[in-house]
Amino acid sequence: MLDGRGALRRRAGLRLWLSGGWLIVVLVCAAFAPLIAPQDPLAQDLMLGRLPPVWMAGAEPGYLLGTDSLGRDVLSRIIYGARVALLVAFVAGTATCLVGSALGLAAGFYRGWVDRVVGRLVDIWMAFPPVLFAILLIAVLGTGLTSIMLAIIVIDWTRFCRVVRSETLNQAQMDYVQSARVAGFTRARTLLAEILPNVLPTIVALLTLEMGIAVIVEAILSFVNLSISTDDPTWGGMIAEGRISIYQAWWVLVFPLAALFLTVLSFAQLGQGLRDRFDPVLR
């Protein structure tokens, strides 16, 4: 049993190191993009269109990952695109977590009419297809990062609400909750001081997963030109452009797609690793 727990901790540590390391790299690139990016991501030079990466024949110095059809540096656009991806991930993910977790905690702990009202809201929200609902909201609110983040919050709070409610229901049946009530804790104090710390690992895992989902949603909306201006670098916009010229310049598609894949995977693995590492049951 102890060996199994030790192996689980080692796997959790590996997840944390690998996923956290990649996300730190992306965060540094986003924060210091003007200093790190080798070229202006918006500068166009048709004479330098579709240059291959530096290790291929016909490459030009200074364009490590090549250029797109307009002569814009692919690496610089990926670095600046990380800003948009992480902004949506952190703002939309955190707001979604706060709204959904608060409703889930309240529904699972107080039960009664609170649980019924929250349950009906969840049922109504989940009756709408998420992607179509997001596109509808963007069409109503208009394009832009603010609209995208609001759409993610409005759609995805139900994921947190359902899972956190279920975890809260389980924790509310534990002996330590009954002991807290006998000790004279108020219901609010019992919820915040006793139940919340034990539900927190699940919330953290969901939060990091939601950040990855937010990155995907922004990329999808950029792919269909429902995000920010098409001139501004976004991973989804680069993927859309690269799809058109995949046979002439595969690097325009592959590199932003790899950045998107690794970032989403790292968010998911980071959450799982944190949960395995800090789960009270495992401790």
Descriptive overview:
- This protein has 10 helices and no strands.
- The mean pLDDT is 83.
- The two termini are 13 Å apart.
- The chain has one domain (2-278): Orthogonal Bundle (MetI-like fold), CATH 1.10.3720.10.
- The protein has 283 residues and is an all-alpha fold.
- α5 (130-141) packs across α6.
Q: Can you tag this structure with a few keywords?
A:
283 residues, 0% strand, 10 helices, MetI-like fold, elongated, mainly alpha
Order of helices and strands: HHHHHHHHHH
| CATH fold descriptor | MetI-like fold
Number of strands: 0
Mean pLDDT over the residues = 83
CATH class: Mainly Alpha
Shape annotation: elongated
Largest sheet: none
Uncertain stretches of 5 or more adjacent residues: none
Instruction: Tell me what portion of residues adopts beta-strand conformation.
Output: under 5%
Question: How far apart lie the N and C ends?
Answer: 13 Å
Specify the number of helices. 10
C-alpha Rg (nearest Å):
22 Å
Going by helix content, strand content and strand pairing, the class is: mainly alpha
Measured as a percent range, the helix fraction is: over 70%
How many distinct folded domains? 1
Using the 3D structure, state the CATH architecture. Answer: Orthogonal Bundle
CATH-wise, what's the superfamily? MetI-like
Please render the helix and strand layout as text:
Blueprint (H helix, E strand, L loop, with lengths): L1 H30 L1 H4 L37 H37 L1 H15 L3 H12 L3 H28 L2 H8 L4 H37 L11 H10 L6 H28 L5
